Structure formats: C-alpha cells, structure tokens
Amino acid sequence: MKEAFSNTIFLIKRLRNGDEAAYTYLVDTHHHRLCTFANSLVNDSYQAQDIVQNVFMALWKKRKSLPEDFNIHSFLSRSVYNEFIDQYRKNQSLLALEKKYIEALNLVVEDKDVETIEQLVDIVKEEIVTLPPKCKEVFVLSRQEGLTNIEISEYLKISIKTVEGHITRAFSILRKKLGDKTDMLLFLLFGPNRKLT
Questions:
Q1: CA distance linking residue 75 with residue 79, whole number of Å
Q2: Cβ-count burial 111-124 (b if 16+ within 10 Å, e if not)
Q3: What is the pLDDT tens value at each position of the chain, 197 positions in all?
C-alpha cells in the first residue's frame, strides 16, 4: 500500500476519504524536511515542530476539499511558511528587528517559491562550511551563536580587529558566491536575533 501512496493522485484520494494510513504516509514522508525548513525560519526546534504539526493538522481538517492534482510538496512548504508568518503576526509587539526579518523573508519569497528558498538555505549552509577554517569559526560564533566581537576575541584569544577581518572576509566570500540576496538569506538562516554586518 505504501508504494501506491507514492502516486500523488491516489494519495490525495485516500486522504479525502479519511484514510489514516495515507495521512501517516504523508507525515512520515515530509515531516523531517518540513521541520528542517521551519527551523531555518525560527531557529527553534520546538517551535519548528509546532509549526509543522499545525500544518499537518490543518491539512487533515480540510482534507475533503483537497484538489486531486495539486503539488503536495510545494503546498506543504508554502503552508509551513504561511504558518510561520501567522505566528509572528499574532504577536502584536514585534520588535523592529523582527519586522525587518519578516520584510526580508517576504522580499526573498516575492520572486522565488518556497521550495527554492529551501534550496537556497541549503546552498548558504554549504558555502559557510567551505569558508577558510578560522574565518568559518569566527563567522559561526558571530552569526549562529550570537557572540559579540569582544566575546569572540576573548574566546579565541585574538584581537577584535582580527575578528572583524574574518567576518568581513566571510561576507565578501559569500556575497561573491551567492549574489545580491546574500544578506537576506543569512537573515533568513540565522533569524531575527542575529545582527548582520
């Protein structure tokens, strides 16, 4: 039966009929990918799981109205993105930096579908891994861990100017490889609590 579910039209028909095995197959197939994508938006694995769970629950509730020939992969990705935006908008006290983050996300999404965003995030991660070792270490401490230049300087026992040099070099390398969307993609990857240079 699992092999049959790989046929999208058959899967959707079964979902519309309330087949729990079809729903289980859908969750098992897409859960990990969607959690990874959601986590790239919120940088919080628990919140990412909540977002994905909400998406699957919403899909199950409206299963009877699902069209038979739509792209489930794209639909789920877009739903995760929309759920993320909805959760942010429910919070009436958004910080200016968080608003900037949402604007950056929407700007990226405007001319690219959500699946492309997932691919771009993966490319950014790959490019960060290929940075020169010391440059990568400083960049990750700064962007991913959120340390200040002074904290990095003390932690690695190097001067603040050296820290700044590594971060500048990292951005320069990434911009050459990733183009004009670099800053927004990094904002997307590291979230609203990560200051960009």
A1: 6
A2: eeebeebbebbeeb
A3: 556 777 777 888 888 888 888 899 889 999 998 998 888 777 778 888 999 999 999 999 988 888 877 788 888 888 888 888 787 766 555 555 566 666 666 665 655 556 666 777 777 888 888 899 999 899 888 887 778 888 888 888 889 899 999 888 988 888 887 776 676 677 666 655 444 44
**Torsions phi, psi for 53 (to 5 deg):** -60, -40
Report the phi/psi class of residue 70: left, alpha or beta, with left for phi > 0 and alpha for psi in -120 to 50. Answer: beta
- 189 three-state secondary structure: helix
How far apart, in whole angstroms, are the C-alpha atoms of residue 190 and residue 130? Answer: 17
CA–CA distances in Å: residue 80 to residues 33, 59, 159: 11, 11, 42
Tokens of 147: 């340390």
Contact at 8 Å (CB) between 124 and 178? Answer: yes
Report how far Cα 124 is from the mean position of its chain's Cα atoms.
11
CB neighbourhood size of 143 (10 A): 22
Q: How far apart, in whole angstroms, are the C-alpha atoms of residue 78 and residue 50?
A: 16
Please tell me whether the overall predicted TM-score, pTM, comes out greater than 0.85 for this model.
no
Residue 169: enclosing H or E segment and its boundaries?
helix 160-178
